[in-house]
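Data deposition worksheet. Section B asks for the primary sequence of the deposited chain exactly as it was used as input, without tags or linkers unless they were present during the calculation. Section C holds the resulting structure in token form. Section D is free text for depositor observations; keep each observation to a single sentence. Incomplete worksheets are returned to the depositor.
Section A, Depositor: J.P.
Section B:
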Amino acid sequence: MGRAARAARGAPGRGPAPVTLALPKGRILEEALALFARAGYDLRALHRPGRRLIFDLPEDGLRVILVKDLDVPTYLDYGAADAGIAGRDVIEEQGFDLYEPLDLGLGRCRLVLAEPIDRPVDERAAIHLRIATKYPQLTRRWLDERGQSAEVIKLFGSIELAPAAGLCDRLVDLVQTGETLRQHRLREVTTLLAVTARLVVNRASLKLKAGPLSDLVRRLAAAVAAPASARRPAACATPRPWCASG
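Section C:
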């Protein structure tokens, strides 16, 4: 029996196992909770979770685990979660084979290529170009699609510092308004990817828990499609941007 199949089976005599849902801690969580509330799920226990990371919600048939946003696809790929919410940037960077049934439309931002305003790159010149990013796979894919070459340097934070420190000529990072780039005298060159949060599902779970997962997708899709006038945010759920970069 596969790892996801073992996770999907309930204990003997205890009925079907709940759907395990991996939600990202941080900025996207409150937006996600408001969306689930509109879909009819009672996730109020997660509004102020404290140090708790696992929430059993039997009335909704859910078990919710709170994980780092970058870890959501890993939990799904290994069958530790049946469904979850992750940004398109994370999903495509990590490349796991997950089913992606729904764009939730949360946390809209962009993955962009940027460079110093006072040191623009002359793409016609034969130079050794260096690009710093948290997204090396997406950056290399974008370069390959255009037949361009560059040295891609992976960083884990403060990407906007890299050009000023002389580490790179350009950077690839998430932006929402572009204000952080402007503060560091950087300008956008082009957009690589439009990013929103997506519902993702483990493919084995989709077969083993077809009923409850189909219901989850249907209810969330209805909540996403509801007119703005009909949307009522859950109490204490203040929407925040997905992007940290500004």
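Section D:
The chain is about 30% helix and 30% strand.
The longest strand covers residues 99-116.
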